[in-house]
Amino acid sequence: SNFGALAIPPLHDTPRQQAMVLLKSFLLAAPLFARPALAKDAFVFLGATGDNALRENGVWQGVFEAFAGGEFDKVGGLDIHVAMNAPHSSSELTTQVNASLTPLYRALAWNPGWKCRTQAGDCSVEEFISKITVNIWHGRDADAQAADMAPALKDYDRLTLYLSVPPSVFGAWSDAAIKNWGQGSKERVHVAAEKPFGTSIETADKLHRDILGPGLTDSNLHLVDHWLSFFINRHLMELRSLVLPKLSVGAGMIAKWDSTTFSRVVVTEFETRGLDGRGGFFDTVGQVRDMVQSHLLQVMALSLVDTHTTDAELDESKLAIFNKTSVSSCSFGQYDGFLLEPKLTYHPSFADATLCSVNLAVDTEAWRGVPITIATGKTTGTTIYTVEFYQKDGPGVLTFEIGREEVGLGGIKVQNWELSNSDAFDVPAPGFGTAGSITATPAVSKGNGFILNYSSPSLYFPKPYAMMAASLLTRQYGTAFVSYPQCRRSWEIVTAASPAVCLDPTPEQVKVYKAPETCGNTPPAVCYEDHTVKYLYDVAFQCSPEHNAQYASISLYKAKCNISSGESDVLFV
Q1: pTM (2 decimals)?
Q2: Which of 200, 262, 497, 513 has its CA 20 to 30 A from that of 49?
């Protein structure tokens, strides 16, 4: 196949334009196959030109992979409706979606584990884009735009409104969707909202009220957390039950997934990169909001819930873990150079941590007395996503590598922990739906090695957003999405006694660090400086004529010293 640049026709702005194009194609006898009848479901996408939509491993790539995996066909077909505002255009979206999907399609075609699974046998980017209808509205009026889209959406059985837009418009679009598309008791409108959902308990509660206020039921609200769709996380309970019998414990003892086998649990997410120009997004957010509340508390819960928990019980089981979880302490760091990021504001009472360690206690019978740590950070010299279980009364560590789709490493390994047996065993195979199983044989010598290794490049792992999209389309809400009670309780955990404990640490609490290679450390052990963000605020960025010139283009300095653009040579204090 030729996977070069694809010439894709513009998207159709309205159903009328779409119909005219199809009629013209029919009269010219051009199409190789007839367009299928109207799909059963519609995916209504807001924010289709945003960074999260178009980026690598983002929403568009996820929805495309789900399409190519045959997930659209499982629900009787799916059409995609995009709501945009002028001056955006359908041709602009075509170009951007093509640029995002063409490299992905090329990579999929070269992956020996991937296969096109659409019923029509056509997984091309052109075929995918043919399923998209665009509505462009002049101005920002959710109700008017939704009313304009209503005729095109009236015959679908189910509408999923995907909100990849600023939370400030969540309520307006929920109201517009229910009012114009809801069709009363059919409750056919579902809303999927990107996390983080709010920035605090109060703002999360307001978002929740705004979305449900128009009449959306709580069961039709789905909070997106793509970390739940990493393959290892999706199968974490099953994999735990398969691995547990292989762990060697004391004579006459039976390994259990609780404090009798493990003395400590550590969930980690470290990144090599920093914010890289995305400082405005991170400003007033910090690492605890960005990663702990949004994602890593979910990983912690999946690591601790009873292995016999069914999918139907999972939501309540995770919530039960959260209800017994409390913060013991938090520590913080901020990488050197973060304050030079664009679009930062100055907030003297707290600092934005880019590195944190959150120590937790889970007061359940199974985990009482076991320290739980969530450690996460940026500019750490490595990219790893893991969950580590430390052996009780022994030197062993059991590690789950949970980021195969993004890091390239996926599996379960031991260090200094002998196995009771190295027999081959069947494990879940990657893929959509029930992909079957494959046989794995542990490669462990003297207590070190992999019990299970998914890192082979010949295996095809759909990206997390692809699995999330597939779950959204096939109604597998319980395992791939976060309920609002879980979300709210997560905010309560990280808020602790006050936001200053973990969410918004004072500048004195936040140490400045550099990447590990600057002092010869092994990643992710960063190199701490002998000062904190308080020093940077008060001394390094002290308002002065000299600094006015030095930091003329630095947003934080200009905000601190009241310097407007074009007046960087004058000091206002």
Answers
A1: 0.90
A2: 200
